[in-house]
Design goal:
The chain is mainly alpha-helical. The chain is 66% helix and 2% strand. Keywords: Membrane, Transmembrane, Transmembrane helix.
Length: 241
């Protein structure tokens, strides 16, 4: 009986290893990605908010929102310091709250900047105008990268479990698995690249949205980026003349 049980256990291990070999890493349960990239980018987004002119800040004094964001970020890092591993649903909601706060603050700044430019306020000097526009644009790239990363196939914690088999974003490595390592799966820097290219090209480049919400989110980012860049550059050129 012991020998039969041992053979059965070996057969099960072989079958499991065969399934892992047939399925790509992004479709099976894997280890969570390291946290350093997303933490660094979130810290950059908080720092960028402190550079904005006070008239473009949502709340006064200007340090209230950055402090709140740092507290939320510290709590997330404390829950899993090294890797983004599956945890309770409350930590996911805390992460979504943090991204929502950053999105709200930057959306307010972008709207206020557009309002000022349309009404001829605060655009008399090209250098501060370009600096404010660049800060809002880069923060916009970070914000949408976080939303893409937090939403694709249920978020990073769901991707670790391999729960959802159908991707919301189609990366090149998914179409051509022979061009990538066998353990490849999308991580935050891949979503940051997606956000940057969508904000510069105003359309998908090498990463295609598959689900309807992904298409709508990319369309929203392209619209915000186009309006921000168009108005800021046009006003700056007019001032320089």
């Amino acid at each position: 009986m012991d020998d039969a049980d041992g053979r059965l256990a070996r057969i099960e291990r072989l079958l499991q290893s065969g399934e892992r070999g047939l399925q790509p890493a992004w479709r099976r349960a894997t280890r969570g990605e390291t946290r350093w990239a997303v933490t660094t980018v979130m810290l950059a987004a908080v720092a960028l908010q402190l550079v904005l002119p006070h008239r473009l800040v949502l709340l006064r004094p200007v340090w209230i929102l950055p402090v709140l964001e740092l507290v939320l970020l510290a709590a997330l890092v404390a829950s899993n310091p090294r890797r983004v591993e599956p945890s309770t649903v409350w930590w996911r909601w805390l992460g979504l709250l943090l991204i929502g706060v950053i999105s709200l603050a930057n959306g307010w700044s972008a709207g206020q900047l557009v309002w000022d430019l349309v009404h001829g306020i605060g655009g008399q000097d090209a250098v501060p105008l370009l600096r404010a526009g660049a800060v809002i644009w880069f923060t916009n790239v970070i914000v949408f990268a976080l939303w893409y990363w937090e939403s694709d196939r249920g978020g990073p914690m769901a991707r670790v479990r391999g729960q959802q088999q159908y991707a919301d974003f189609l990366f090149v490595q998914m179409q051509s698995p022979d061009m990538a390592p066998p353990d490849w799966e999308p991580e935050f820097l891949d979503y940051l690249y997606l956000s940057f290219t969508n904000a510069t090209a105003f359309s998908p480049t090498d990463v295609m949205p598959l689900s309807r919400w992904a298409k709508m989110l990319m369309m929203l980012q392209s619209s915000v980026s186009l309006v921000t860049v168009g108005l800021v550059v046009a006003r700056a050129v007019n001032v320089l003349r």
